[in-house]
Design a protein that fits this description.
about 260 residues; alpha+beta; Laminin; 5 domains; two-stranded antiparallel ribbon
Amino acid sequence: ATTKSEQTSTLTTNINEIESTTISTTIETSSIQISFNQTDTTIKDTNDISSALINDITNLIVTSTNKPSPSYIVPCPCPNTTNIGVNCNISSTLCDVLKPCQNNGTCINIQSNIPSYSCSCPFGFTGIHCEFDHRPCKPNTCLYHGICNNTSNLTFNCICNQGWQGINCESMINFCDNITCWNNGVCRPLLLHYKCECLGDSYSGRHCEITSLKIKIYKIVSKSFSYVAIIAISCVVMFVIIMDILKYCFGIDPTREDLERY
């Protein structure tokens, strides 16, 4: 066992041998280097160094955690200052980063103290980012129902597809003109066509000209009753007329005897 005085004497001897030195100890398991720098150190009284201080220094050197040391990646500067990235293959100019020009405009980088850009717009487009379209023929000028042709810088002409008409091909041609749907059918215009919508199931056919059997029977019965009623009414009228003719023209009153009897 080492006594207190022997530990103090050993520490004093090691310090006296190093007048202006650096004591460094490396712990390989944790890759931590602990250094003690001491210059012009004078220990006046070695008796003041206690065994507790020696134990603290020993524990500080020996005790360590096995955490790996942090690693840092310091990128190398790119030869071209306008490029960025690990391989210096990404452009950092405003035109490449923002892509501000619309409608196929060309972006031009302006190298100055304040990096900026300018958009060169194609014909018919204006604005800082070529966002305003002044072309006579736009994608929806003919409402997707025809082909637009520029007749000048300010005028256009729409060649409409079949079944469409108007300046912008906005109207569908009404094929119901001069078409008659029978039996109160309704004509509905369709693209390049028309359709007669018949009432219920009573009529059918392209122009509602075909009558169902049920309607035919109904019409026959209705006509029969009508004819019977007409015949009956006609008989009554003829009887009244004949009675009046006999009474006022020939003086014959078939009902006189019956009236006198009662």
